Amino acid sequence: MASSDNSETLDARGPTPVEGSGLEVATGERERVAGHTFRAAVSAKNVFLWPALLVVLALSIFPLIVSLYLSVSRLEFQANGIDVRFLGFDNYASLLFGTEQDHFIGVLKPLTPVGWIIVAVVAAITARAFVSYLRGVNVRLLGLLLRAIAGLLLVGLVWLFAQTLFAQGGRPGTLFVTLVYVFVGIAVQYLLGLGLAVLATQRLRGQRFFRVVFLLPMTITPVGVAYMFRMLTDTGKGPFVPLFDLAGLQNFAWVNDPWGARIAVMIGDIWQWTPFMFIVLLAALEGQDQEITEAALVDGANRRQVFRHITLPALLPVTTTVILIRMIEAFKIIDLPNILTNGGPGTATESLTLEAFFDWRTLNLGRSAALAYMLLIVVTLIATAYVNLVRRRVTATA
Amino acid sequence: MRTLFRRRSALDLGPVSKAISYVLLVAWAFVVLFPLYWLAITSLKQPIDVDSGPVYLPGVDFKPTLDAWKYILVDLQSDTVRPYVNTVVVGLSSALIALILGSSAAYALVRFRYSPRVGVIGLFVGCILFTIVALALGAAVPLAVVSAAAVFLILYQTVGRRFKRVLGNSDVAFWLISQRMLPPVAVVIPIYVLFQRVGLLDTRQALIITYVATNLPIVVWLMRDYFSNVPIELEESAAVDGASPYRIFRSIVLPVAVPGLVATFLFVLVFAWNEYLLALFLSSANAQTMPLTVAAQNATRGPQWWYMSVLILIMILPVIAMAVALERYISRGILVGAVKG
Questions:
Q1: Is A22–B239 a contact, with Cβ atoms under 8 angstroms apart?
Q2: Model pLDDT, residue B63
Q3: In this complex, is the C-beta atom of B140 within 8 Å of any C-beta atom belonging to chain A?
Q4: Which residues contact A300 (CB under 8 A, 6 or more apart)?
Q5: For residues A286 and A208, what is the distance between their CA atoms, to the nearest angstrom?
Q6: Which of A26, A166, B23, B288 suits a disulfide with A115, CB 3.0-4.6 Å?
C-alpha cells in the first residue's frame, strides 16, 4: 500500500545501481555480462531478492487485509460465535469527529496568540516551499497535486495540534502525544547517538568497554525496561527520592503531572533506544576511510571542519535510514506508557498503539483496527514526506 | 614509517579534548549503568528492603541475600529453563535466517536493477482480493487459490506485458519497510488465526517464522547502506575473472561488510530476543519466551521487583557476552584492509 505509483517520489534515497558497471543487466540482450552469461545474472537477480520478499509478503498481506476489514465493521461476541456487522467508516468517523475525538485528537479550544504565531509560521514555510517547487524546472501535475495535499495536511495537523496545546483548556489526544514522543525522542536519540559514536571512535584507551556498555540498554526487553523505570521513578522507594527531597520537590508527584509523566516516558524511551542510533552510526564511522580525514587534518583543517565537511556528509545515507527505522518503531511505543503510567494521569501519556491496545482488550476490535489504520496512514504520510525532503537535501548537497 | 607515525598522531586528540571526551564517556556510562546497578542490588534484596525506601549499598545499608536468585534458578528451575532455551533457540535462528535472506536481498537491491510493473502489482493484488472474496462466498480453499493463480498467470502473459509504468528499487525497499508500520496489536489476531490453521501454534517454528518476517525489512535497510559503501571495482574484477554472482557475494562482498553484518545481527537478535506481544499470542506452555516470564512477575500483590530483576539480568547476560565477543568485528581497518589487499 505504501508503494505509491509515483515512482519519482519514492526513489528517494539510497544507492542507485552503478550504470555500465558490468553487473548491470542489459535487458533484452543475451550477452556476456561481466564475465557470466545474461541468464546467470537474471537467475541470480531473482534468487537474491525473492526469498525475502516472499517471506514478508506471506506474513503481511493477510493481516493487512483482515485488519482493514475489521476497521470497517463491528464485532459482537455472542454465545453462538462472533457476529460481524459492516459499518462503513463509522469507526473512523467517531475517532475524527465523534465521541472519541477528545481521546484521539484531543480537546480543541480557541488558539492563544502564541498558537496563532506557530500556525502562521508553519503555513508560511509550507507556502514558500510550494512556491519554490512551482518555480522549479520539473513541475508535473501528479507531483503538484501530491505536494498540495501534503502541504494542506501538514498545516491542518499543526493547526489542530496548536488548538490542543497552545490554547486555554486544550488537551492533546493520543495522536499528538505519540507525535511528541516520536519527534522529541528521535531528535534526542540521534544527537546523543551521534555524539557518543564520534567519542567512541576517538583514539582513547578503554573504548571496547565503553562500546559494550553503551550497547546495554537496547539488550533489555522493553517490558523489563518499563518495569525498571517504574522502580527507578517510584516516588516512595526509588533511588532518586533523596535527590528530589534535596531539591525541595517532596510534594511533586511526576505521576500526577501530565508533562512530568510524559517526560518520564520519554526518558525511558531515550535511555533504551539511543544505543540503536549509536551502534549504527559507529559501524558507519568505522567503515569510513580514515586516510581522507588524516589528510585533511595534516593539511590544516580543524576537527570541526573535518566533521562538518567530511564525516557528516558520508553519514547522510545511514542517517536517513536509522531515523526512518526508528521513526517507524517509535510510532508503535506501547510498553513504557502502559507499564510506567498505564496511560495516566487521565489519558495524558497514552500513545496511539496503547489506545488501540485498550480498545482491543475491551474487545472493541473494530475501533482498535481503525486506530491501527490511522496510525498506518500517519506514518506513511510522514515517512513519504521525510524521504522526499531528505532526498532533495541530499541531492542538493551532493 | 616516520610519515605513517606522523599521520597517526594527527588523529590523536589534544590533552584537553581528551579529558573532555573521557568525562563525557564516563558520564554516559554512568547513565547507562546506574539503572543496571539498581537492578543488580534489587535482586539481592529482601522484599522488606525494597519496600522500606531506597537503600543503595549491599552490606552497608542492607544485608544482601541470594533468596531471589535461589527461587528463580533452583525452586522454579523448570519454569525458568524452558523459556530460556526457547528464547535462545528462537532468537539465534530467526536472527541468522533474517540476516541471510535480508542481506542477499539488500545486495540485490544495491547491485541489480529491478523494474516491477505497476500494472502487474495491481493484477496480483486484484487476484488476492478475488481469492478472499471467493473464500468468503464459501469456495473450497484449493479451488480458490488455484483458480486465482491461473487467472493471474493468464492475465500476466497477455495484458501484463502491455503495462509501461514501472517502479524502482527504492520502491521495493520502501514497501518492505512499510510492512513494519502496522502496530503488532493490529496484526496479532490474523497471524494467530494463520498459525492456528497450519497447526503451528505454541511452537518455536511459528515464532521463528514471524520474527524472520518482521525483522527482514530492518536487515534489508541497514545492509543496503553498508553494501553500497563496498567499492564496486572489487566485484568487477572478480566477475571478469569468471566468478558467479553467488561466489562474488559470498567471498567478496560479505567479508568486506562484516562490521555492518555484525551490528545488524545484534539488532535482529535483540529484537527477537525481547519481543513480547506476538510471543504472548503465538506461544503458551511449550514455546513461551523470557519476556513473558518477566511480565508474569507482576502478580496480584504488585510487581515482584526482586524476581523480575533476577530474570532481566539472566536474560541480558548472553546478549552481553555476544556483544563483547562480536564488538571487535565492528572496528576500523577491516574494510580498508580488504580494499587495499
A1: yes
A2: 82
A3: no
A4: none
A5: 13
A6: A166
Strand segments (E) across chain A: 32-33, 36-37, 73-78, 81-86, 106-107, 171-172
pLDDT at A391: 60
CA dihedral A181, B207, B95, B111 (to 10 degrees): -80
Does the structure show a pLDDT above 90 at B102?
A: yes
Length of chain B as a residue count: 341
**Which chain A residues touch B276 with a CB distance below 8 Å?**
221-223, 335
From A22-31, A228-237, B72-81, B96-105, the region with the lowest mean pLDDT: A22-31
CATH number of B66-114+183-340: 1.10.3720.10
Phi, psi of B284 (to 5 degrees): -125, -100
Domain extents for chain B?
Answer: 66-114+183-340, 117-166
Q: Which CATH class is domain A173-361?
A: mainly alpha
Residue among B128, B170, B277 minimizing CB distance to A13? B170
* Angle, alpha carbons B186-A376-A130 (nearest 5°): 175
Q: Kindly report whether the peptide bond that precedes residue A345 is cis, defined as omega within 30 degrees of 0.
A: yes
In the predicted model, residues of chain A with pLDDT beneath 50 are: 1-36, 395, 398
Question: What ipTM is given for this predicted complex?
Answer: 0.82
Half-sphere exposure of A3 (CA within 13 A, CB side): 23
- Give me the residue spans of the domains in chain A: 106-172, 173-361
Asked if residue B282 lies in contact with residue B270, where contact means CB atoms within 8 angstroms, the answer is no
Residue pointed to by grid coordinates 532533495: A392
Contact across the interface for B186 and A369, Cβ inside 8 Å: yes
Angstrom distance (rounded) from CA A173 to CA B159: 48
The DSSP H or E segment spanning A221 is: none
CB contact under 8 A, B183 and A10: no
Output the nine-digit C-alpha cell for B50.
525494597
Q: Is there a contact between B22 and A203 (Cβ–Cβ < 8 Å)? A: no
Distance between B250 CA and the closest CA of chain A, angstroms: 12
What 3-state class would DSSP assign to A111?
A: strand
Say yes or no: B143 contacts chain A, CB-CB below 8 A. no
Q: What is the pLDDT of residues B308-327, one digit of tens each?
A: 899 999 988 888 888 888 87
Residues A221/B290, Cβ–Cβ less than 8 Å: yes
Check CB contact of B169 with chain A, cutoff 8 Å: yes
DSSP state of A398: -
Radius of gyration of chain B, Cα coordinates, nearest whole angstrom: 26
CA distance B263 to B259: 6
CA atoms within 13 Å, Cβ hemisphere of A233: 24
pLDDT at A7: 37
Q: Are A154 and A160 in contact (CB under 8 A)?
A: no
Mean pLDDT for chain B? 83
Cβ–Cβ pairs < 8 A, chains A and B: 377
- Dump the DSSP string for A37-48: EHHHHHHHHHHH
Decide: B273 and B91 in contact? Cβ < 8 Å. Answer: yes
The CA-based angle A378-A175-A163, given to 5 degrees, is: 110
Nearest of B101, B107, B65 to residue B225 by alpha carbon? B107
Which cell is B127 given? 487476484
Band (pLDDT 50/70/90 cuts) for residue B51 is confident
Using a CB–CB cutoff of 8 Å, tell me whether B41 touches chain A: no
